[in-house]
Amino acid sequence: TQLLEQSPQFLSIQEGENLTVYCNSSSVFSSLQWYRQEPGEGPVLLVTVVTGGEVKKLKRLTFQFGDARKDSSLHITAAQTGDTGLYLCAGVETSGSRLTFGEGTQLTVNP
Amino acid sequence: EAGVAQSPRYKIIEKRQSVAFWCNPISGHATLYWYQQILGQGPKLLIQFQNNGVVDDSQLPKDRFSAERLKGVDSTLKIQPAKLEDSAVYLCASSLHSRNSPLHFGNGTRLTVT
Question: For A5-110, CATH number?
Answer without folding.
Answer: 2.60.40.10
